[in-house]
Write a structure and sequence with these properties.
This protein is an alpha+beta fold and about 425 residues long. Strands 1, 5, 6, 9, 10, 11, 12, 13, 14, 15 and 16 form an eleven-stranded mixed β-sheet that branches. The protein has a three-stranded antiparallel β-sheet with strand order 2-3-4, sandwiched between helices. Strands 7-8 form a two-stranded antiparallel sheet. The protein binds adenosine-5'-diphosphate and magnesium ion. This is Kinesin motor domain-containing protein.
Length: about 425
Amino acid sequence: ASPIKGRGSQVTQEGPGNKRCISVVQEVNRMKEERERRRARQAEKLLEKDALRRQDPGNPNWEVALMLRQYQATLNFSPLRCLDPHGAFVQPITVCVRKRPMSRRESNCKSMDIITVPTVDSLIVHELRFKVDLTKFLEHHKFRFDYTFDEECSNALVYDHTARPLIQTMFEGGNATCFAYGQTGSGKTHTMGGEFCGKVQDCGTGIYAMAARDVFEEVSRPKYRELGAKITCSYFEIYGSKVFDLLHPDKPMLRVLEDGRQQVVVVGLKEMPVTRVDDVLRLIELGNKERTSGQTAANAKSSRSHAVFQMALHFPDSWGPYGKCSFVDLAGNERGADTQSADRQTRLEGAEINKSLLALKECIRALSRQSSHLPFRGSKLTQVLRDSFVGGKKNKTCMIAMISPSTSCVEHTLNTLRYADRVKELVAKDDDLQ
Ligand code: ADP
Ligand code: MG
């Protein structure tokens, strides 16, 4: 008789069929043991998880926090804490990143800090991802820049490594330009204009003011006094493709023209003579007030405009300024995505912001390649800043990309870092980050 096939079959006969049945029984037993082992392992894991959860009570993200801690434990930390005694390295184009601290709101809503700044020039974004079986894992995006500032770095330390080395450029007949780039709320205005205490901004603690102090220290040297050197300040805003003077009580719209010598002129822009740091601070305060007047959080126009603060060095009887320092608080880069908005005006503004940030990136890249083709006519922003890009080796540019630390901003943070990375492509050194 042929052996009976199938599960749970009775075994009464000897022969090849009988052997097969025995092996089926063995297989069933093996599977049973395996299942029991798996269950025991799962129970063990659950106990372990429970113990770990109790280490981080009340944190809904305890699992991700644990993965992050375990990863960070493998890194060597030596973040930037002070200026090198030899000063910062001066180069034609510097690209840095600054991470701001978690805000109270972010901490209260249990958002997580997912940015690690292990060394003076590296940064890691830990992005939460899900496998197909929905288990969580962290993807570690590594970046390298000229300098990376973590949440403990002060405005002064950032200034020392970014704008300060550029000030001398103006006295050497060049143009120094410092950009603050990033998402709205990432710390551009805090860094450039000064720290906020509630809604009040202390404009003495920003890069504008620190630069003004250094400019006056230099210009008060006998050499420049004898030459009759003078400093002027201007402060304007580019909103859409329009330029508005922030130092004029009526905030008039100004025209931008190019003359026969391809010089770009902002017609009627106030260039206020200043003789000491306090004069500059007063002008910054005045401009800041103009910039934000009549705004609410909902219509925050300032996040859709680029603010340009300039100091220029003049000598008597010469045409135009000898050198210039420009500081640009750029529009929030996420506003470039407003091109999908239902509101036509918002869409147009978004498109203009997008265009200007792309043109800016291309101009800086062209400057670094010493390329003869400078696409500065690509936007109002780059057109107005033409002098920063032409003039070759005398010019120096610095970009500070600002990022928010929290989980909710990870997409914008990665966009910001990828943009900054394209402005100046530094190769990430893997051994630094492990
Ligand atoms: P942005 O100009 O990029 O929109 P802000 O400069 O207005 O951003 O910063 C948003 C908020 O974060 C402000 O309340 C500011 O005080 C705070 N902030 C930004 N950077 C820092 C920092 N480095 N340290 C402390 N608070 C910061
Ligand atoms: Mg701002």
